[in-house]
Design a protein that fits this description.
Elements: H1 2-15, H2 30-39, H3 46-57, E1 63-70, E2 75-82, H4 88-101, H5 111-121, E3 128-131, H6 134-142, E4 145-150, E5 156-160, H7 189-199, E6 205-212, E7 218-225, H8 231-243, H9 252-259, E8 271-273, H10 276-284, E9 288-292, E10 298-301, H11 313-316, H12 319-349, H13 356-365, H14 373-393, H15 396-416, H16 422-435, H17 441-461, H18 463-479, E11 481-482, E12 485-486
Antiparallel strand pairs: 1-2, 2-4, 3-5, 4-5, 6-7, 7-9, 8-10, 9-10, 11-12
Helix pairs in contact: 7-10, 12-16, 12-17, 14-15, 14-16, 14-17, 17-18
Length: 541
């Protein structure tokens, strides 16, 4: 091919004295193939154009080339598409329309008039794009479009025939809600955007699409409510996404790691969810969502510490019930971090804090245990984490059974073998149960990691180590930022207005204002004076 000969000269100049032998496309590296495709243009010969397509796609089994004849002149043409990516019904309809609608039509020899006639007569109900660039044609083809090549014309007509196979919308298994919607995101960006549109039915919900990954070309979209989300936040999200230059994006976790403010913190700085109602709630607060193709997990930013301890049930139940279950989580989360360390610290360094009867019972149960308390605690906590991970990775039918039975058998066997004492098993079990109350998986992992840190501090220098660790942890939380917003708000800095929806959830009619630091552009959420009251009886009634 002439284009390949021209590309050889460019490579020779780049390589200098170390001249490479390039005889075909197969000898080019992936970056060189990308550059080569960008320089390719269509020619008037149909067979040459189809050969270029075949050379670029190789022997891919899903490449389909349907040759047809159109018009009274029986002009040779070909429709190129990928099976499985394009909708077969849409492709067959295009083929039928081209051959039937143009059967008795005399096509003009002038390229512009011919293409206009085809699009007007046969493809008038399709979204079409005319292009002479191979790079654009290949990009559209790999995302579900079909390209029509015509003999004697150096342009192609690209028709929208996207028809991906997608998973049915169903309830997310990792984010169960007792009361509320049962639908969840899927792996298709357009389906996910429609789930948002169904809930926010205003034109001010803006979705801007990006294409990421030089090899994967994954669709990524940011969603926000124009006029509610801060323009500085929107610009910052766009700039961070546009800075990403990588060959592949397979999941939203890739993007999350690239755009987080602090990469080394154990706490997640961006919230992920499969639930559309969570995303909608964030958008209505003035936040931004990132939708990624190929994954049902949507990112919400900025995120705060309290966001990870909230669940949809907090808002769907009445405020006493919602406040109570949220308060339980705020109590359980510190227990899942500090309880083993506090127990070890008291036993090792501060036994005087324990009533004498209880201390004697604990000492009696530890007779025969060959390890110090800290080693015993590390061993039991580690084994429980192994069991939990095994339960997650095993098939669902047997995973939960093995994790529960394994924990029971292992705990009983450890006591009988003298490797652990019953109080330690109780402490580890209470810690595990407390950790299960965390609604967010990533946030729960942060607690599991910190548990070992505080276990070491408690076993090293007792409660003074726990106090030192808590101080460092609070400093770290107050220093963290999520897209410039304080991560530990409304506790640090203290924002009294936002305390109405933090540890406890106040009634809906009292939540008049949005979050002060995020939703400041349109602070008022609802009108005042909506508190329900019993009817007032008038005199004489």
């Amino acid at each position: 091919m002439k284009c390949l000969e021209f590309f050889k000269k460019i490579l020779t100049k780049k390589e200098g004295k170390e001249q490479r032998v390039v005889n075909s496309l197969e000898d080019l590296n992936i970056s060189e193939r990308e550059d080569f495709v960008k320089q390719m243009k269509l020619g008037p010969g149909l067979s040459d154009n189809l050969q270029k397509i075949t050379d670029i796609f190789g022997n891919s089994f899903d490449l389909n080339i349907r040759k047809i004849k159109i018009g009274t002149q029986q002009i040779d043409a070909a429709l190129v598409f990928l099976v499985g990516v394009s909708d077969p019904v849409a492709v067959e309809k295009i083929l039928r329309d081209l051959q039937i609608s143009l059967l008795e039509l005399q096509l003009n020899d002038e390229a512009d008039l011919l293409i206009e006639t085809i699009t007007r007569q046969a493809l008038n109900n399709k979204t079409v794009v005319v292009s002479a660039q191979f790079s654009e044609i290949l990009k559209k083809t790999t995302t579900g479009s079909a390209a029509l090549f015509i003999e004697g014309y150096s342009r192609a007509i690209i028709c929208e025939t996207r028809g991906y196979e997608t998973r049915n919308i169903q309830e997310p298994e990792a984010e169960i809600s007792i009361r509320g919607p049962r639908d969840g995101f899927v792996e298709n960006v357009f389906t996910n955007s429609s789930l948002l549109r169904q809930r926010i039915r205003i034109p001010h919900l803006w979705l801007q699409k990006f294409e990421m990954g030089s090899l994967t070309k994954i669709n990524v979209a940011i969603a926000y409510i124009k006029g509610l989300a801060s323009e500085e936040l929107i610009d910052e999200v766009k700039s961070r996404i546009e800075r990403i230059d990588v060959d592949s994006i397979l999941e939203s976790g890739y993007i999350q790691e690239y755009i987080s403010d602090e990469a080394m913190s154990v706490f997640p700085l961006i919230k992920r969810t499969e639930r559309p109602d969570k995303v909608v709630f964030g958008l209505l607060e003035g936040k931004v969502a990132i939708l990624t193709g190929g994954t049902p997990f949507v990112l919400i930013l900025p995120a705060t510490f309290e966001d990870f301890l909230k669940a949809p049930d907090d808002y769907y139940e009445t405020f006493p019930i919602g406040s109570f279950i949220r308060l339980l989580r705020y109590i359980a989360y510190p227990i899942s971090i500090f309880l083993p360390g506090i127990y070890v610290g008291i036993i090792e360094f501060h036994p005087e804090l324990i009533p004498i009867d209880l201390l004697l019972r604990i000492a009696a149960t530890r007779e025969g245990v060959p390890f110090p308390v800290i080693v015993e605690a590390f061993l039991m906590a580690f084994l429980f984490e192994v069991l939990r991970e095994a339960g997650i990775r095993l098939p669902k039918a047997i995973g939960s059974a093995i994790s529960i039975v394994g924990a029971l058998i292992l705990g009983e066997a450890a006591i009988d073998a003298g490797l652990a004492s019953p109080p330690m098993i109780v402490i580890v079990a209470l810690t595990a149960i407390a950790s299960f109350t965390t609604p967010d998986f990533a946030f729960g992992i942060a607690a599991r990691i910190l548990r070992f840190v505080f276990l070491f501090l408690g076993g090293s220098i007792g409660l003074f180590g726990i106090q030192f660790g808590i101080l460092i942890l609070l400093i770290h939380l107050c220093a963290l930022r999520s897209f410039g917003q304080p991560y530990f708000q409304p506790f640090g800095p203290l924002v009294l207005q936002d305390m109405k929806d933090s540890i406890a959830r106040f009634p809906w009619w009292s939540l008049i204002f949005r979050s002060k630091l995020v939703g400041g552009r349109e602070p008022q959420r609802q009108k005042k004076g909506q508190k329900p009251r019993p009817p007032v009886k008038r005199k004489g009634e």
